[in-house]
Amino acid sequence: MSSSFDYKTLEAWCQDAITILAATGVPEKIVDMQRSAVARNSGASALYEIADSLAEGLSFLPDEEREIARQELVTRHGFDFELFVDKKLKKVKSILRRGKIRNEAEFRELSEFASDTTHSGILLDAADTLLAKYEAP
After folding, report:
1. CA dist., res. 109 & res. 95, Å (int)
2. Element housing 95 (H / E)
3. pLDDT confidence band for 82 (50 / 70 / 90)
4. Burial 50-78 (b: 16+ CB within 10 A, else e)
5. Which side of the chain, N or C, has fewer Cβ within a 10 Å radius?
6. Separation of alpha carbons 37 and 48, rounded Å
7. Burial of 37 (0-12, 13-18, 19+ CB in 10 A)
8. 83-97, pLDDT tens digit by residue?
9. DSSP state of 61
């Protein structure tokens, strides 16, 4: 992900995303761990990975809660969790179009995608086929 916004903005976004998820019943211990991870990685590119993880959690909220979260994040920060979710899907589609997994990072990305059965069956089948053919270098 490119640095289209600064780390301070991303850090504040992560903290708000954690607050939103906490309100949905995420255990307090998990919330504390997430906040600690954000604080530990303040000003570092690892915040993008944390934001990716939080975005995934937000994307699984029920429709009404997801829309409220999206609006709140856009209002406060100018972007929502779809920015991170769409980026992951774009990577996966790129791998599927190519028809070949080039490295372990792509293998992990595709494995993570394939483990989420809410995606299109066609995409999941294509991902499973590539994963089965992959041989680590």
Report:
1. 9
2. helix 82-98
3. confident
4. bbbebbebbbebeeeebeebbeebeeebe
5. C
6. 12
7. middle
8. 887 777 888 888 888
9. S
C-alpha separations of 58 from 37, 87, 88, 121 in Å: 18, 15, 14, 22
Residue 3 pLDDT class (50, 70, 90 cuts): very low
CB 132 within 8 A of CB 99: no
Report residue 134 as tokens. 């992959």
Q: Are 94 and 80 in contact (CB under 8 A)?
A: no
Assess contact for 11 and 38: CB atoms under 8 A.
Answer: yes
